[in-house]
């Protein structure tokens, strides 16, 4: 049995468990960014429920600016309550919906300590699905492929 799938109550601030969670979140972020830089984001499907997640997200967060997120839009008391209601709708729909996942604050840039925030998996999916569908992630391929080619030439 994977230790990360066991109930959180079994652990008391175990640093090795926290390190495993951080590593898993980082690996997920790395795979996600590589996908964004390799394929057309508008054709990318992040979950079997992308259409539902996007529909509900935009119904409930129709004015949320997702190209550059403000941390308060995710973490303020008011935002947390609204997000909690959104997230709970997917409890039995999205597997591991509440897992900690890294999200880029600025969609035009890569994951970094400054540009990443820890959110739930369903928040990540909602925002990244919207970024893909709304064309916000479209320029990543050009921007990061060309910079990696320049590095190879030097």
TrEMBL record:
Question: Where in the numbering of this chain does the Polysaccharide biosynthesis domain appear?
Answer: 17-140
A Pfam entry, by short name: PBDC1
Name the residues that span the membrane.
none
Taxonomic source organism: Acanthoscelides obtectus (Bean weevil)
Which is one Gene Ontology cellular component term of this protein?
cytoplasm
Return the protein name.
Polysaccharide biosynthesis domain-containing protein
